[in-house]
Each structure stands twice: as structure tokens, then as C-alpha cells.
């Protein structure tokens, strides 16, 4: 059931499996009565006792990701105390007053975010810039540490341990690809470094070729990556190469930070169609999208809308507009649902 409000999310998120609720930082909740998902298999390093390439490429294990009341706080230095050393250097000679000790303030980036991402589906995280999308994705991928992160994050009812993180792929917004390598060379190089040592070099190269085919990169496989000074692949193809980096490891959970950023509407739709095909193979896909078109929005099974670190809406993408209409917020004319949700998140609804 969707949730709306400026504060924390309340209500029970749908369970993703046998929830032996292990906390990131908080009390342990009781075991639910839902049917548990099968336990995770051994870590990849222990499971690679053969050189069967087919087993490697099909080793994806369904992961249901559940997060409840996720909060993240950071400490920031008082702006009035910043630059003290520079002011001391530039001040005229003579007795100076010793500045007071710099004080710190705490800022909350995420306020109790709750949701579930299931295998075979795409969970889209929408929101304006600075709403906390990237912070949430980093938390779900196990990339945030320290006492500032609180709440419950579970994968198949388990803590985000090493066995889970090995099956998690994370695609950042900015890539670090070598501009002078071709697409094939890039992925073969990645396969040689990241795939298990039990595989022969030829088998790793075959895994790279299979990933090229899976992500529709065959036509540009021998084209260099390029950069702003060297002509290479298109923006959409470049994004697919970044996704291929993670797909080489056959992840069960794929998290992407604004993969459509900088792409035109057609390229963004093709990229999201690729991610939809990845999800339909039993993987769990969580992605943040800044400004999706109406065609792209229709691909989202579940939508989580953030506004200033708070959950504005969580539920099925097809039910977002009917829900807001039921509480008195309806668009004045037919429009892209994503644009309407972003208007609400920005507080520009009229």
C-alpha cells in the first residue's frame, strides 16, 4: 500500500523472505511467519570447484532486499568556523584573538526510508537533486559504514555480509573506463581481473563475449570507448559497458546510480529496456532515475519517491497517480507521471 507524507514512513513493508531481522543498528525484531526463501549458497570462492563456464554465468541466486526505517546522519563543521587558518594568515600583524573551538552539527540525510526490492522487478528511486537517492543506494549496497547509519537492511532475511556483497553489483554515476581500449578489450581485461582464478583465460574471455551479447554490445565491440577528446562509443553504449562490468560477476542484486543521466529519451529507453531484460532473468534491480520519460516510467514495477531525505511515496508505479488523486493532488492536465511526482517532491505543485 502506498505511503504519503512529509515525515517518516510508517506501516509494514512487504516481506521479502524469511526475516530473521538483523539490524544495521537497532533492536532485533521477531521472526515473521512468512514462508522463508531458500538460504544463500556458499560464497563464490568456495563454490568455484570446477571450470564450468555455464555454471559461472548462471550462478545468479534470487535476492529479495528489504529495508525498514533506514536513517543516515552526518556531522558537519559549523560554517562560521571554517577558514580560520586562512583568515589568520591574511590578518595584519599584532595580537589576535584565539578563535573558539569549532563546533559540529548533525545533519540527517535519510529519514526512516522503508521499501522492498524483489527478484524479477525494477525498483525505481525518484527524486530531485539532493533528495538522498545516491545515499540510499550506497546504504543498500553496503557502502556506508559507521554509527550514522541506522535501520534494518536485509537480503533474504540476512545481514549484508560478505556472501551478499559478492553477489551485489553497483554501477556508479561516473565511470572510469580507459578511453583507448575497445569495448571487447575493456570487458576481457575486467574479466581477467575479477573472475575466479579457477577459470582459464580462454574461459574468462568467453564470459566477456557472453556479456557483450547479453547487453547488446556486439555492434560496437571493436569500437574504442573514447572520451570528450577522442570519438568512441555513444553515451548509451558507454553506460551499457559500465553495466557489463558488473554483469560479468553474474550479480543477483544490481544497483545503479542514475544510469540514464546525460542520455536522450531514446537512449534512456533502450538502456532501461536492457535493465528490464536483466530483471526478468530473476535478478533484483534497484536504480535511481532523475527525470524518466513516460515510456521509461511504465517499466517500473515499484517506485520510491524521495523529497529532502523523506519518503513521499512508495508503492506500485501504476498506482501513484490514483493515490495522489484520492488525497486531493491531481494533475491539471494529462502529463508524465514522473514529472508530476517530481513536481510534488520539489513542492511546486499548483
From TrEMBL:
GO molecular function terms listed in the Swiss-Prot or TrEMBL record: ABC-type transporter activity; ATP binding; ATP hydrolysis activity
Keywords (A to Z) from UniProt: ATP-binding, Membrane, Nucleotide-binding, Transmembrane, Transmembrane helix, Transport
Subcellular location, record wording: Membrane
ABC transporter domain mapped to chain residues: 74-333
InterPro entries membership: AAA+_ATPase, ABC_transporter-like_ATP-bd, ABCG_dom, ABCG_transporters, P-loop_NTPase
Top-level division of the source organism's lineage: Eukaryota
UniProt xrefs under SMART domains: AAA
Cellular component aspect of the GO annotation: plasma membrane
Pfam assignment, any one: ABC_tran
Main location: membrane
Region called Disordered, residue ranges: 1-46, 82-104
Topology within the bilayer: Multi-pass membrane protein
Biased composition (Gly residues): 1-19
Family: Belongs to the ABC transporter superfamily. ABCG family. Eye pigment precursor importer (TC 3.A.1.204) subfamily.
Protein name: ABC transporter domain-containing protein
Organism: Punica granatum (Pomegranate)
Lineage, broadest ranks: Eukaryota, Viridiplantae, Streptophyta, Embryophyta, Tracheophyta
Amino acid at each position: 500500500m502506498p505511503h504519503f507524507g512529509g515525515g517518516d514512513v510508517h506501516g509494514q513493508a512487504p516481506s521479502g523472505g524469511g526475516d530473521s531481522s538483523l539490524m544495521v543498528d537497532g533492536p532485533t525484531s521477531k521472526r515473521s511467519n512468512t514462508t522463508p526463501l531458500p538460504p544463500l549458497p556458499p560464497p563464490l570462492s568456495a563454490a568455484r570447484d570446477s571450470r564450468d563456464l555455464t555454471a559461472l554465468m548462471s550462478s545468479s541466486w534470487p535476492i529479495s532486499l528489504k529495508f525498514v526505517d533506514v536513517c543516515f546522519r552526518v556531522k558537519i563543521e559549523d560554517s562560521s568556523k571554517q577558514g580560520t587558518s586562512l583568515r589568520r594568515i591574511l590578518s595584519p600583524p599584532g595580537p589576535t584573538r584565539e578563535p573558539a573551538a569549532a563546533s559540529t552539527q548533525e545533519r540527517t540525510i535519510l529519514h526512516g526510508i522503508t521499501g522492498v526490492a524483489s527478484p524479477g522487478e525494477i525498483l525505481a528511486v525518484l527524486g530531485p537533486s539532493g533528495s538522498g537517492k545516491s545515499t540510499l543506494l550506497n546504504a543498500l549496497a553496503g557502502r556506508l559504514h559507521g554509527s550514522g547509519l541506522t535501520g534494518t537492511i536485509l537480503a533474504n532475511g540476512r545481514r549484508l555480509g560478505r556472501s551478499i556483497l559478492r553477489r551485489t553489483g553497483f554501477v556508479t554515476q561516473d565511470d572510469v573506463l580507459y578511453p583507448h581500449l575497445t569495448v571487447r578489450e575493456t570487458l576481457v581485461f575486467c574479466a581477467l581481473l575479477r573472475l575466479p582464478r579457477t577459470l582459464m583465460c580462454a574461459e574468462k574471455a568467453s564470459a566477456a563475449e557472453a556479456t557483450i551479447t547479453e547487453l547488446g554490445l556486439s555492434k560496437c565491440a571493436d569500437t574504442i570507448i573514447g572520451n570528450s577528446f577522442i570519438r568512441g562509443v555513444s553515451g548509451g553504449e558507454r553506460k551499457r559497458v559500465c553495466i557489463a562490468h558488473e554483469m560479468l560477476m553474474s550479480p543477483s542484486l544490481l544497483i545503479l546510480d542514475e544510469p540514464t543521466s546525460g542520455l536522450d529519451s531514446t537512449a534512456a529507453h533502450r538502456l532501461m529496456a536492457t535493465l528490464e531484460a536483466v530483471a526478468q532473468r530473476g535478478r533484483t534491480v534497484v536504480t535511481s532515475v532523475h527525470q524518466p520519460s513516460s515510456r521509461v516510467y511504465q517499466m517500473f514495477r515499484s517506485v520510491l519517491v524521495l523529497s529532502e531525505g523523506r519518503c513521499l511515496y512508495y508503492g506500485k508505479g501504476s498506482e501513484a497517480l490514483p493515490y495522489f488523486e484520492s488525497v486531493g493532488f491531481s494533475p491539471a492536465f494529462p502529463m508524465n507521471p514522473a514529472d508530476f511526482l517530481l513536481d510534488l517532491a520539489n513542492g511546486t505543485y499548483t
